[in-house]
Write a structure and sequence with these properties.
Number of domains of chain B: 1
Shape of chain A: globular
CATH class of the largest domain in chain A: Alpha Beta
Order of helices and strands of chain B: HHEHHHEHEEEHEHEHHHH
Number of helices of chain B: 12
Bound molecules: thiamine diphosphate, magnesium ion
Number of strands of chain A: 14
Strand order of the largest sheet of chain B: 1-2-3-7-6
Strand content of chain A: 15-25%
CATH architecture of chain B: 3-Layer(aba) Sandwich
Structural class of chain B: alpha/beta
Distance between the termini of chain A: 42 Å
Oligomer: heterotetramer
Number of strands of chain B: 7
Largest sheet of chain A: 7 strands, mixed
Helix content of chain B: 40-55%
CATH topology of the largest domain in chain A: Rossmann fold
Helix content of chain A: 25-40%
Radius of gyration of chain B: 19 Å
Strand content of chain B: 5-15%
Largest sheet of chain B: 5 strands, parallel
CATH class of chain B: Alpha Beta
């Protein structure tokens, strides 16, 4: 199987779906000749032309609003938001319109739109090029929220997202774009939206993570294994709808839960996972439910030591998991 | 040229809308419905626009005052009554949405929210899809003049202008946004004046004259179909009623002002034109009035006995594709 | 002490603060002659004139953005969003700008703005006039989030909010505007932003709530008392920053926690409260942490039976608390 | 009329900005800084505007390319170097923000984010506060032409137009938004043409000629002070560098195009004017160049040895008023 980077897998997913379905098109800032500021759409403008790879005006609200309109008409738009940080101007369209169209029309109208955005810190991006925004959207019924942690999943999940009749928020850990490599089959495959994946089995403590933090969690588990602590690592992958079953089964096995994300702690995605565990796995627990997250400050600072302080990393994850395992 | 039959049909649609709308106010006063928002005074703009387009073919993104527009598209008084009362058979939303949040798949009317101006970029997106597919459909989207203050509105129109999309932006300028006059919304005389800064054709039309509206919309629709891009039409009219059943407009405008505008009632103007042309006789008018009353009576009676939605699986379903909608 | 309604207390708070500080002004849709669609600003236009009670263009983003600008200059704007449902167009300004100004400038700039919005369901408002939006903002470091449940707190907290040097989101349970009455002292007082309040002591189960749900929780506690179940009711009042101490002390006493809100369940504010309890009160707990919330559908439906189904009420709260007390 | 000294001072500010900006590119190539975004080619518009206003009195809401504007306001090369390297003494944010996210309390420059167009409504709000207090201050806010596509921008300008606020909206039209040409952003020839739809004065100026910019801004500032409302000024210029240190502009524009525009370098244009007027001699120029080099060298040297911020209580503090900022 060929190995490729995360961003190559994402590009391949779009390429294949555009070849398969003439209704699929891309709209976003600099997605055309430039191929996207991260090069996710590189080569697609040349291959599919400017009517299917559309350079949008610098206005996220209408990138999404126009996408919704085209989707209502039967197209399959992929809206690229250049950085997740710039998704807020489109918040009203995503939360108030895309998420509610199916429900409010009693199923008469659907909005099959995919909204892709690179997210996350650790890239010296400061407050406005580092943000994690998944919690806002995972709170909204009617949206699916997907975050891949590796090329295989990224490709399979993005293809599923493009075919999904519902709006899907697809957040890509940009620090991993070129860092994370993995095998991707040549033949066509899909990864279903919904199920989480246990990416490493263990009996001592469950670590729940996604995106870049899942990549780090696996590294932390390696470190712990050398100390004799067997961490189970769960890649949540689909944040909404949440896969309660996998989460609860894992906690049943280990009795201990650590949730990791780079988004800030308060009402970050970990709050929901912790709440689910506290309600439905109460009798399985033999330690407090722990969250390791970005601190509650308004964004990732730019300066190296401050960024380092903000971001969870394999060491911090290992420390938190170790402490929990020893509880 | 419009045929006599068509003219009569246009008048009839306005009349039916008016009587239905008036009944809604009565039902609200009687405590039989929770809310009403009115299109009285705006029927000419709405019906004139629809008749200039191809029903069942072109696309429509109306706003909450577009009762008459919806009736012109095939939405019925019974549909409206069911929706007002939140009954299960409400075809727009099965009782989920407040009344006047339209949706009508068969007439290419996507579901609308209450958040003003959100439909503008949807209209552009539909226009883009039409253009991408090389079709000759046209999109009409309506909005109030106050709502053109939203950045949303500007972004949607801008898209259509850049890509020369087949979209007609019809602004129903009724001079108020709840209590705020148009001078609090913009530093230009009216929405049509915004067109020059956006790079599309902008025109004003007397929104109380259904035939003038028809002419203008027919003309810009033809342009849109020829690939000559979008237009912004401002229909000048007046909101004769309070903003909604929750409003008390005496706090912000005088009775004299409202009375003066009632003299420019679009229904009376159309009636006068058609009487003069001999299309409408006193007898015909009486007939139509009786028919409207009967239809509205029946609609309300039907809706009142119709069942409420029940709480079942359907009510918790938030995603398409979990069941097949065969 | 005079008795008054919730909305009268809110109006009085603004009136007093405008009289006290010439920098305080109000900006929003229909706040002038109309006195606001709920009449919160009734009489203030006549008293303070059109330069201090400003009818804004129909555009929430700039209501907040203009408020932020004026606040940077040293004014104390109160921005009224007509319904909480219409706050999303302003999301970028609130989350990206107001919340971060102090932090990103290392304290050089502050944004003393209050953003008021009526929220909540049960008023036949359907999807777009019923929403609870507090969770989105409580997730954002740099914002204070306040929700009063009674006239006394509403007045005291709003006055504190207006004097606070930071951006404060002030959400008002609109169903209670005229329904909830209470005594309000004639003399000047403030209620501090921060502390929750135990509004009823009990030993069997803790019910955490705010706004309209707190009002209902007290009614539920009355019903339970007749059955011999003593529920403790905690009015969270300030959602951000959260008052962990009061929450944890209450759970320590009762060992059982029920969190109630009308916002939908997933990643609603209850998730954070549950996560805090699961982490810091683990050894005090003798039952699963329970959440009672609006169902995960994209908004409160309009039709009476559907609205009834959506909304928590005293009976539903009593049922959940009873079940928990018997665990 | 500008004095010789002032003209020389204007030139000097442009020159210093240019040399500092060039050094940033070098530092980035050397891996000594993480990021740079350039103002090269835009210095005339920025410096011309500041000199037409009252520093320390009027208010400024710049955008990320406004290095020269900031230097004109008293921000120093050392300040910039500290910020580029994320050092503790960075006066804009103590290392929290990326470079070029300006803030300078002493010069009435509120802290800026990266999210384009957000400063526009802030500028209107400051203008409103000035008007409410009856003062004669003026607000200048800058933005790129692409960013005027944001609904945000429109809403902010609309406020200023409605209330006739003393705000100057300076659009630096450098013809690209990253890779997208202005035709992808709007259906009018340029941002100045948007003014007619918003109801304010809109003008174009050659943004490569510092003295023309000065004249126009001085004139509209005077108008604003007299209570005659806001203006929208489009400075036509060209982005000579790639968008930022992360960009590769060869993917979307030809080298010939860029070279052609380098001939309209605002620094050379100002130099030619001043040489012709006898204000600038070869000797003086040499002096200034040497001085600029010295200042930039020192700034970089200072910043490189300066300490990083430490993780202390200050870094977790998100609310004002928890400590007294005495
Ligand atoms: C984003 C948003 N903000 C506020 C409201 C509340 N609201 C409903 S209608 C209305 C006034 C609309 O005025 P206009 O656009 O002129 O339309 P009209 O009602 O006069 O037809 C307002 C403020 C809303 N629906 N959406
Ligand atoms: C809301 C938002 N979306 C996207 C970006 C990413 N971005 C940064 S600069 C830029 C282009 C801006 O172009 P223009 O306004 O013309 O200014 P210029 O950079 O050309 O000076 C983009 C898309 C951003 N900063 N903010
Ligand atoms: Mg109106
Ligand atoms: Mg540009």
């Amino acid at each position: 199987m060929p190995e490729m980077t995360l961003i190559e897998a994402i590009r391949q997913a779009m390429d294949e779906e555009m070849a398969r379905d003439p209704n699929v098109f891309i709209v976003g800032e600099d997605v055309g000749k430039r191929g996207g500021v991260f090069r996710a759409t590189m080569g697609l403008y040349e291959k599919y032309g400017e009517s299917r790879v559309i350079d949008a005006p610098l206005a996220e609200l209408s990138i999404v609003g126009v996408g919704i309109g085209a989707a209502l008409y039967g197209m399959r738009p992929i809206c690229e938001i250049q950085f997740a940080d710039y998704i807020f101007p489109a918040f009203n369209q995503i939360v108030g319109e895309a998420a509610r169209m199916y429900y409010r029309s009693n199923g008469e109208w659907t909005v099959p739109v995919v909204i892709r955005a690179p997210y996350g810190g650790g890239i010296s991006g400061g407050l406005y090029h580092s943000q994690s925004v998944e919690a806002f959207f995972a709170h909204v019924p009617g949206l699916k929220v997907v975050i891949p942690s590796n090329p295989y999943d990224a490709k399979g999940l993005l293809k599923s997202a493009i075919r999904d009749p519902n709006p899907v928020m697809f957040f890509e850990p940009k620090k991993g774009y070129r860092l994370i490599r993995g095998e991707v089959p040549e033949e066509e495959y899909l990864v279903p939206i919904g199920p989480a994946k246990i990416s490493r089995f263990g009996r001592d403590v469950s670590i729940f993570a996604y995106g870049m933090m899942h990549y780090y969690a696996l590294q932390a588990a390696e470190m712990l294994a050398q100390e004799g602590i067997e961490a189970e690592v769960v890649d949540l992958r689909t944040l909404a709808p949440v896969d309660k079953t996998t989460i609860l089964e894992s906690v049943k096995r280990t009795g201990k839960a650590l949730i990791v994300h780079e988004d800030n702690l308060t009402l970050g995605y970990g709050a929901e996972v912790a709440a689910i565990i506290a309600e439905y796995a109460f009798t399985d627990l033999d330690a407090p439910v722990r969250r390791l997250a970005g601190p509650d400050v308004p964004g990732v600072p730019f300066s190296p030591p401050l960024q380092e302080w903000f971001m969870p990393n394999p060491e911090k994850i290992a420390n938190a998991a170790r402490e929990l395992a020893r509880f | 040229m419009l045929s006599k039959e068509t003219k009569l049909d246009m008048y009839w649609t306005m009349l039916l809308s008016r009587r239905l709308d008036e009944r809604a106010w009565v039902l609200h006063r009687q405590g039989r419905i929770a809310f009403h928002i009115s299109g009285i005074g705006q029927e000419a703009a709405q019906v004139g626009a629809v008749f200039a387009l191809r029903r069942g073919y072109d696309w429509f993104l109306p706003y909450y005052r577009d009762i008459a527009l919806m009736l012109a598209l095939g939405y019925t008084p019974r549909d409206f009554a069911l929706s007002m009362m939140g009954k299960s058979e409400d075809i727009t939303s099965a009782g989920r949405q407040m009344p006047s949040h339209w949706s009508l798949r068969s007439a290419n009317v996507p579901s609308q929210s209450a958040t003003v101006a959100t439909q503008t970029s949807h209209a552009a997106g539909i226009g883009l899809a039409i253009k991408l597919r090389g079709e000759d459909k046209v999109v009409l989207t309506c909005i109030g003049e106050g709502s053109t203050s939203q950045g949303e509105w500007y972004e949607g129109v801008n898209w259509a202008a850049i890509h020369r999309l087949p979209v007609i932006f019809l602004v129903q300028n009724n001079q108020y946004a709840i209590s705020e006059r148009v001078e609090r919304q913009m530093a230009v005389p009216g929405p049509a004046a915004k067109a020059c800064g956006l790079g599309l054709d902008g025109r004003e039309v007397d929104g109380t004259d259904i035939f003038q509206v028809y002419e203008v919309i027919a003309e810009v629709a033809e342009k849109a179909r020829r690939g000559e891009g979008p237009s912004l039409i401002e229909a000048k009219l007046y909101r004769i009623t309070p903003h909604s059943s929750d409003d008390d407009d005496r706090t912000y405008r005088s009775r004299e002002e409202v009375e003066a505008h009632k003299k420019r009632d679009p229904l009376l103007i159309a009636q006068a034109i058609l009487e003069k042309e001999g299309v409408l006789t006193p007898k015909k008018l009486e007939e139509l009035e009786a028919k409207a009353k009967r239809i509205v009576d029946e609609a309300v009676a039907y809706a009142e006995q119709a069942p409420y939605p029940v709480v079942d699986d359907n009510v918790t379903r938030v995603f398409a594709g979990e069941v097949s909608h065969a």
